[in-house]
Amino acid sequence: MKSEILALLRERGDHVSGQELCERFNVSRTAVWKAIGQLKKEGYRIEAVQNRGYLLAEGDEMFGQHELESRMDTEWAGHPVKFYDTLGSTNLQAKMDAENGAREGTLIVADMQTAGRGRKGRAWSSPAGTNVYFTLILKPEFAVELSSMVTLVMGLAVAEGIRKVSGVDTGIKWPNDIVVNGKKVCGMLAEMSVEREYIHYIVIGAGINVGKQDFPPEIADIATTLWKECGEKVSRAGLIAGVMKAFEECYAVFLREGNLSGLVERYSALLVNKDREVRVLDPKGEFRGIARGINDTGELLVELADGTVTAVYAGEVSVRGLYGYV
Questions:
Q1: In which element (H, E) is residue 35 found?
Q2: Where does residue 215 rank: exposed (0-12), middle (13-18), buried (19+ CB within 10 A)?
Q3: CA 213 vs CA 22, 62, 73, 75: distances in Å
């Protein structure tokens, strides 16, 4: 009930009477009073005025179970939310939960990770009170060969979610790095469990650089934060809710089409590599060409010097700008 009370107070933006809360949630005035008191103990500024009711006043950013639940405006993505102050890795926790029967849409969120991971086993810096770290559990019924496209769906959702919540002009560096002004603001890691062409589950995690922070020298030139780019604080809970809303919509399009055809135009519009020369770092041999967008299966279309177009698969190669990260 506490999450529902928060959501109603935030939506109303004005006083809500105790009687309305009682009727809305079918509880006693004592139950409402206790819930309000517990929220205050968690740090929420809730003002009570006689004959007017309760008002949620502005205060410091809140980030936790009830804040996340109260902001989640989705049908299934982000339901339930499982929040942790500290985790080794949201992906690892999500995999354990998925193995133990957690339903599709379960969202694992941590304020801090002690063993955050990026692609190829790289460590992902995960300090407390600063950024967003989450992993979503999916239990799809589609064929294994479609699974690689899900990371592009999440990449699009994160880019669009950040744009809507913060106003920051985000782009996508194929396949799913989210960049702002040529610097990385978010990375993702998808993992899955498969048996005989049957997908048991997919977990897809994201780490978004939100608050003010200093980066280690090895990534200082290619990483940035939303705070730096927009000059103000961005609600971490609001950001997660915005990404889940965008993902649910994008994922529905993907499932309906059975590929990325319904999202190609939106994705390509945000692709920072599009119509730029890129280096394709293929184990078989590096080559260069002009990125022309993606196809319906998420491969990057690269036009070579002779005019032919080759489709590049993300699982085999990586792409860099001719003169740097982008």
A1: helix 29-41
A2: middle
A3: 43, 19, 29, 34
Q: Do residues 148 and 121 lie in contact, with contact meaning Cβ atoms separated by under 8 Å?
A: no
Residue 314 to residues 173, 254, 318: CA-CA distances in angstroms? 12, 18, 7
Tokens of 160: 């669009």
**What type of residue sits at position 193?**
S
- Distance between CA atoms of 326 and 173, rounded to whole angstroms? 7
Stated as kind and residue range, the H or E segment containing 53 is: strand 53-56
Quote the CA–CA distance of 40 and 139 in Å, as a whole number: 37
- Give the C-alpha separation, 210 to 225, whole Å: 5
Q: pLDDT tens-digit profile of 29-54?
A: 899 989 999 999 888 899 988 888 89
With beta carbons less than 8 A apart as the criterion, state whether 124 and 113 touch: yes
CB count within 10 Å of CB 227 equals 18
Model confidence over 172-204: pLDDT tens digits? 999 999 999 999 999 999 999 998 889 999 999
Closest residue by Cα to residue 139 from 75, 204, 201, 205: 201
Lateral strand order in the sheet of 107-113:
81-87, 107-113, 132-138, 198-208, 183-195, 177-180, 171-173
For residue 239, the one-letter residue type is L
Q: Which residue has the tokens 């990404």?
A: 243
253-268 pLDDT per residue, tens: 999 999 999 999 999 9
Question: Cα dihedral angle (263, 187, 191, 110), rounded to 10 degrees?
Answer: -120
Interstrand relation of 81-87 and 107-113 (parallel, antiparallel or unpaired): parallel
